[in-house]
Amino acid sequence: MIRPILIHPDPRLKSRATEIGTPDAEMRALASDMLDTMYDAPGIGLAAPQIGVMKRLFVMDCVKEEGVEPRPMALIDPVIEWSSDEMNTYEEGCLSIPDQYGDVERPAEVEVSWTDLDGARQRERFAGLWATCAQHEIDHLDGKLFIDYLKPMRRQMITRKMQKMKREQARA
Ligand SMILES: [Zn+2]
Checking DSSP bridges between strand 87-94 and strand 73-83, what pairing results, if any? Predict the structure, then answer.
């Protein structure tokens, strides 16, 4: 089931989400809805607060190559266990901030632990786009957006554009 995605500014996108612990059937259904919503958007990552659920869960699939099997992942209570000193800059976007992009510098590789949908703890090292995406999504669980890394002028400009877009949508 596709869920509506919250658009910045929204207080739920600025709040810290709470730990889940062992996932139940409801949490598995939520992860499934989030993957549907992410692929439909389309996007490569989506965090639960973006659909108004203040729980520490995000989904991602950064496979972009033609002919390569998709790799849908759902990460519950993710923790960044290690970050590389080497940094990487990607032009990031966000499903909650449509059509706005900005360069963000983050560690090039991260090792993340998380609980999977069966309740088992997993751990994996991510690089490239996967590393950027995982850090962007974990930021969402802490109420942080990619525009928070941009210069204040640019952040304010994007926020004003989003406010205007939401006003126009509300009128339509
Ligand atoms: Zn985002």
Answer: unpaired
User: Which letter does DSSP use for residue 157 in this model?
Assistant: H
State the catalytic residue, choosing from 66, 86, 92, 137: 137
Q: Give just the sign of the alpha carbon dihedral 30, 72, 58, 154.
A: negative
137 annotated active-site: yes
| Exposure letters 157-166 (e unless 16+ CB within 10 A, then b) | ebbeebeeee
- Statement: the pTM of the whole predicted model exceeds 0.90: yes
44-62 confidence digits (pLDDT tens): 999 999 999 999 999 999 9
CA dist 95 and 40 (Å) reads 11
The helix (run of H) or strand (run of E) holding residue 16 is none
Instruction: Indicate the SS3 state at residue 100.
Output: strand
CA torsion, ordered 88, 48, 36, 74, to nearest 10 deg: 60
Task: Write out the two tokens for 64.
Answer: 């972009």
How close is the Cα of 108 to the center of ligand 1, in Å?
A: 18
Contact 111, 92 (CB under 8 A): no
pLDDT bracket for residue 64 (50, 70, 90): confident
Distance (Å) from CA 118 to ligand 1 centroid? 25
* CA–centroid distance, residue 29 to ligand 1 (Å): 21
